[in-house]
Specification:
single chain; binds 4-fluoro-L-phenylalanine; Hydantoin permease; two-stranded antiparallel sheet
């Protein structure tokens, strides 16, 4: 019941890059960097990505490519004990994240539609906020668009690993980069007073760097690199033997950080040149940006490509989340890939709709004052991802036979190369310690 393989190196890179580049890069990174010392944060971020996250990615890559099956079964095949539960946790996490991620994917589609129809034109900022709130409160639109977003992801999944996932990413990722370059050029060169935004993002302020900043950087890097829930593991099970995993991982990491930085350079100059305060996440993407676009020449075009950009980033990540669950359902229930995908369209359609409705004014799927959307978001990033990531590195570094790790990371080279020795040290010591500290910080045990 194998799902297939990625046919080319460039396709492999595009697919993995498609998973990692997502909403985490567009909104969360620029905001965190701006608030936490700008360029200084970027340096810390790159540092922890290399020392903490990259080892997790290489662990997932090694487990996945050596076993060539879904996350749960990969653990089970390597070790008979309860370790398969780590894979199960990954599948559950992917399900949970995808349920709210598809809602945001849906918002970007609605905003793309509005941009194409030029519906933002001539609307005051107050009216824009009212309309956005009314749209969320009504619930119908968000549910429909979330389902459209899920249906698109399902279609790509059904087309298959190579003809669907690989091909789609080979088209979508270059498009995404091209759009981002246009947006950055426009923001830096054509907006008045763009320097303030550039300064906000790039001014290095090392006084802001504390232990907590370091831990925030670990959390961000984890989410941004799609780690801790079997997405990289599942994609790795489609990577050919000839690919060199450490260099793929390094290239992906550099690409992911570059997109995050460029997103900041596209967004913040625009925000500052219109004297807007960099406020909270979804608001900046979905309220502030349309506002800015309608005040500038060529705004409708920029608005269309901006929301296309957000949508591309969201859908390519969504597909990777869906693939984790599809591979699991298809292989474990021994049903065809397309049947598994249709089952998930139905079940995830329900949980996704519940997430969308939990934010409406119907007051359903709200528990103790928290919407299901927020609960899923909170529980997955604060508990499921760090626990999953920690278990994965412990498994790869201490439970899995070392020959698997070594042959996967050196492409069968028997000699202990320096690079391999360094990676093994990071996997066994540095990464687990940092992730543990991050988890203690997230649950409030580090003051
Ligand atoms: N890396 C994605 C982002 O930065 O938005 C989020 C994500 C996608 C997390 C896929 C996990 C995953 F499996």
């Amino acid at each position: 019941m194998a799902q297939g393989t990625f046919k080319s190196s460039i396709g492999t890179f595009a697919a993995v890059a498609g998973s990692v580049v997502g909403l985490g890069n567009i909104w969360r990174f620029p905001y965190l960097a701006g608030e936490n010392g700008g360029f200084a944060f970027l340096i810390v971020y790159l540092f922890v990505s290399l020392l903490v996250s990259l080892p997790v990615m290489l662990s997932e890559f090694s487990i996945g490519r050596s076993q060539r099956c879904n996350a749960m079964r990969s653990f089970k095949q390597i070790s008979g004990g309860p370790w398969f539960l780590t894979g199960m946790l990954g599948v559950a996490t992917a399900y949970v994240i995808d349920s709210f991620y598809m809602v945001v994917g849906g918002w970007s589609l609605e905003f793309l539609r509005k941009s194409v129809m030029n519906e933002f034109s001539g609307i005051s900022p107050e009216r824009m906020t009212e309309e956005f709130n009314a749209y969320i409160a009504d619930g119908t639109g968000p549910v429909i668009w979330a389902l459209v977003s899920l249906a698109l992801a399902t279609t790509i999944i059904i087309l298959g690993v190579s003809k669907g996932i690989e091909k789609m990413n080979k088209i979508m990722m270059p498009t995404l980069v091209l759009i981002l370059v246009i947006l950055v050029i426009n923001s830096i060169f054509f907006l008045p007073n763009s320097q303030a935004g550039i300064d906000f993002l790039l001014h290095p302020d090392f006084s802001k760097i504390t232990f907590k900043t370091l831990l925030a950087a670990v959390g961000q890097s984890f989410f941004s690199l799609s780690l801790g829930m079997g997405a990289m593991l599942t994609y790795a099970s489609y990577i050919q033997e000839k690919e060199h995993l450490p260099s793929t991982a390094l290239r992906v990491m550099i690409f992911d950080s570059s997109i995050a930085l460029l997103s900041g350079l596209a967004i913040f100059p625009a925000v500052f040149s219109f004297g807007i305060d960099p406020s909270s996440g979804p608001h900046l993407l979905f309220l502030t940006m349309p506002n800015i676009f309608q005040q500038i020449i060529g705004g409708q075009f920029l608005s269309i490509i901006f929301f296309l950009f957000v949508f591309l980033a969201a859908i390519t990540s969504q597909v990777s989340l869906l693939e984790v669950v599809t591979a699991f359902v298809s292989e474990e229930l021994k049903i065809k890939r397309w049947k598994a995908a249709i089952w998930l369209l139905l079940t995830m359609g329900i949980t996704g709709s519940m997430c969308a409705l939990s934010q409406s004014d119907m007051d359903i799927f709200v528990f103790n004052g928290h919407s299901l959307f927020d609960i899923f978001d909170y529980v997955s990033s604060n508990y499921m991802l760090p626990i999953g990531g920690l278990l994965i590195v412990i498994f790869a570094g201490r439970i899995m036979p070392e020959r698997i790790l070594q042959s996967q990371l050196t492409n069968g080279n028997e000699k202990n190369t320096l690079g391999y020795t360094v990676i093994k040290f990071l996997i066994r010591y540095v990464s687990p310690i940092f992730i543990s500290l991050m988890f203690l910080d997230l649950i409030g045990l580090i003051k």
